[in-house]
Design brief:
Layout: E1 4-7, E2 10-13, E3 18-24, E4 34-39, E5 46-51, E6 58-60, E7 68-73, E8 78-83, E9 92-99, E10 116-118, E11 122-127
Parallel strand pairs: 2-11
Antiparallel strand pairs: 1-3, 3-8, 4-5, 4-9, 5-6, 7-8, 9-10, 9-11
């Protein structure tokens, strides 16, 4: 069973930046799609970003396009989410998530009918 450990959350002012990291215990970043979800208070968990090594596709939630960048380092079994220009719509707990069984493409990632393995989450707060 894969284990996911996130880090990098915190509190910043609007316009600030944070970089989230997720270490994936079983690796596989060179094979399978992986990404990030977030859940704000009172809202459903939503997929924020995904990266697929098979076709190089990177998916972004519309509201974070141009501000967030997903990347990975296969040698470190780590996926990152660089978050710039954070605004008051971004505060949430951010989760690294891997579908189980894994999927190859971001087109499948985020499907609510899939089973996901989740990290413990890392909280992002943004103040005005």
């Amino acid at each position: 069973q894969v284990q996911l450990v996130e880090s990098g959350g915190g509190s910043v002012q609007s316009g600030g930046s944070l970089r989230l990291s997720c270490v994936v215990s079983l690796g596989g970043l060179d094979l399978y799609a992986i990404g990030w979800f977030r859940q704000a208070p009172g809202k459903e968990r939503e997929p924020v970003s995904c990266i697929s090594p098979r076709d190089g596709i990177k998916y972004y939630l519309e509201s974070v396009k141009g501000r967030f960048t997903i990347s990975k380092d296969n040698s470190k079994d780590t996926v990152y989410l660089q978050m710039d220009s954070l605004n008051l719509e971004d505060p949430a707990v951010y989760y690294c998530a891997s579908p189980e069984p894994p999927v190859y493409y971001c087109a499948a990632y985020g499907d609510p009918t899939l089973h996901y393995e989740w990290g413990q989450g890392t909280e992002v707060a943004v103040s005005s």
